[in-house]
Each structure stands twice: as C-alpha cells, then as structure tokens.
Amino acid sequence: MTERKNGKDGKRIGLIILSVLVAIYLIGTIIFSNIALPGTYLNGKDISYASKKEALESAPDDFSLTINARSDKSLKINPSDIDYNAEVPSDAKIDQNPFTWPSALFGNKKENFDFDYKVSYDKDKLDKVIDNSSLMSNVTEPKNAKIAMKNGEFYIEDEVPGNKVDKEKLKKAVIDNINTKSNELDLDDSYYVNPEVTSKSKQIKDALLDAQKLKDMSIKFNFNGFDLKLEGDSLLDLFDMNDVGPELNYDKVYEYAKYLASETDTYGKNRKFNATGIGEIVVGPGVYGFKLDVEGMVDKIYEQVNSRKSGVIEPVYSNIAYVRTDDGGDIGDTYVEVDISRQHLWFYKDGNLIVESDLVSGRPVDGWASNVGVGQIVNKVANTKLRGLNFDGQTSYETPVSYWMPIGWDGEGFHDAPWRSAFGGNIYLTKGSHGCYNLPPSVAGALFKNVDYVTPVVVYESSTNNSPGMAY
C-alpha cells in the first residue's frame, strides 16, 4: 500500500518537473523569438539578449572609430564629427531559430550577422577632423640611420622612426573602417612615413666599412722641399656625413687645394737671391715660378680619396718652374742673372759660370727702362726680326737679329746687337735699348746655345732705382 502510494508521488513530481521545464523552454522560445540569442554579433558587435529590431535600427547610430597611433596618440571619430549616416538594408533580418536557445545559452558558439549599410559622411569634415587631430601635430620626422663619428671613430647612428603619419593611407583606412563599421584602428608601421635606411640595412653597413677605410689612408704630395700629407683629421675634415656615409665636400676639397697652392706656389712671390759679388737680396716676381692648378688638384684628390687607398699625388701646375729645390724654392744652380745697375750678365749652369758679359739695357727715360723681377727663357728663336716703336713713340723699327730669347710678357729679352761697339758702364742711361738686353753677338750666341727653356732669369738693380717690376 505504502509502496503504491510512493510510486504515484514520484510520478507526480516528475510530471511537475517536466511541466516546469517545458514551460521554461516554451517561454524561452517565445522570448528569443524577438531577442538575439546568446553569442549573437551584428557587424562584429555583441548584441546578445538585445531586441533584434532595436539592434538593427540602432546599429547605424552606434558607430564610433578610435584610432591608436605611436607616441600614445589617439583619435576618436564620432558620427556627429563627420555627419555620419547609415541606412539599414530593407532586407536586413536577424534570422535565428528560437527553439535552439538552450544550446546557445549553455554552448560557446558565436553567430555573426553582417549587413552592408548604405553609409554616407561629409568628406571635407573627415579631412578636417584628421588634419586637426593630434595625429598631425607635434610630428617627429623620420630620420635615416647614418654614419657618424665620435672621437675619431665611425659608427652607425640609429634611425629615428618618428611619428609622421601617411595621411593618404590613414584616410583610406578610416574610410574603409567607416564603411565596415569597425570601431577600432591600430596604426602599424605601414601607416607611417618610415626611415628608408635602418641600422640593419646592408647599405649602411657597407657605408660603415667604407668609412673606416678613411682612417688608415695617408696621401702624400710630391712637392720637393715640403712634407705635406692628407690624413687623419685633415682628411676627415673634407667630408660631410650624409645618410649613406662620408661624402667629399667639393668646397672643402677646393679650399684644401688652395691651401696647398698657398704653401707651395712660388709664382707671383718675392724671392731671396744670392747676387754675384753682393750677397743675399730680395727680388720681385715675374713670369717664372710654380703655380698650382687648383682645379686639377681637386680632381687628383677626389680620384685618390675615392680609391680609398693611400698613395702619392703628383702636383698639377698651371705654370711650372725649372727646378724645385730641396728647400721648396725654384732657383737652383742654373740661372741667368742680370744686374741693371752694373749692366752685367752672368749665366750659371749646374753651378758653373758659362757666360759672363757686359750688356746694354733699356734707356731709363720716358718708360723705356728694362723691368726687374724673375722671368724665364720663354722661347729661343734664331734669325728673326724684332719690331716695335722708336723712342719718339710714332715711327717704328724693324731690326734683324741672329739670336732672340724673350724672358716674359713685356716684350723684353736677350738678343745680339752687332751695331754696338761698346757695352756696359753708363751707356744705357743715354743710348739704352727699347727695353731689351743688348749683347755682343758672340755672347748672345753662347747664351743661346747653352741656356734651356724655362731657365730662370733674375733681373735686379743693386744700386739704382729706375726700373718697374715685370708683368706676370
């Protein structure tokens, strides 16, 4: 009896529980007919338990875009900022089976509904929002890695990434996110103007190896009498550092070549000279002397330095002298010497006196005096005619000579004067030449035979002061 009663009670309880569960299930089914099941996403946004109708209608208004950038910068774009509007497609529907709500509730399944809204916005306002944002202010420009030098050592200075956003790429990404209703945009490296050369670039590593070769270079210049070298700091000072390493600066190289000229040129400078029978005197300049070709030296320096090899550079001259002495001078033991005051000439070759003679120089009246300075044997011409103006400045003369040796650009030179019977003394004061140096024919012939081209001709006045300086 008791057992039968207990059995009936158990069945009754089971029916009650079942009825409750069925009721709950049916109620859930009714509820989830209008609201979204758990794990439901609308265009990427979780709308679980939300009214399907309201979720669809409010989705366009629920848009905002947050942009995260370098340097802790960010930008949030709200719908009102750009007059954003999105229309729900007429066929948009969140179609779910409400009878599956238990599995959705207790499961871990996600279901996403994507709809293409008809989106519109004000492009000009979008441009202004971007332009006026922190993303576009306080910009740090990117910088390439470069070769730098400290304490005489080259090293790679790291690049600077900066935070300069590529506006066109950013704008395109923002538009894409607006159209897809994405709410967040993280700007990776592709959205920035990045350095083209980094510390890991092969280009910069090769540049470092190239730069390090400069430290060991030594360039010598073959100037007799001068110990001039281009190395160490003086070499490195000719370079500018750019993104790909040290690069020769033309202006600096040019200035260095000018420095070499200032140190070694003898052209256009006064000289100390050991005058025969007198001793040391100072003689002014003329057409004789070494004059460095500055631009030619620039080319030589570029060629040698760019080879990254030590070496010796042969000087390039625009004017060359007969000899470069051990003390850097240009008058050795071969030269022609003329003292206008003593009206005398000496010709020394390799230290030996070859020719010595009295002469007659230009008459020191009305501008006919011979010029002083250091000239050179510019040319040697046999059997020619000399032409010029007579002392009256009106009529001209034509005089045949056997030997003609000009010594500069003034029209002056050595030649034979067979019409004269006497030379030296004070003849030149009243019966001097038109500026040339008249010599006895035998003396002129001996000089012509033994003197070489470019031999220096030193002309001075030891006790008088009538002559102007040579042109040069």
From TrEMBL:
The chain crosses the membrane at residues 12-37. Pathway: Cell wall biogenesis; peptidoglycan biosynthesis. One of its GO terms (biological process) is cell wall organization. The keyword Transmembrane applies. GO terms for cellular component: extracellular region. The active site is at 415 (proton donor/acceptor), 436 (nucleophile). Keywords: Cell shape, Cell wall biogenesis/degradation, Membrane, Peptidoglycan synthesis, Transferase, Transmembrane, Transmembrane helix. This is Uncharacterized vancomycin resistance protein. It comes from Anaerococcus octavius.
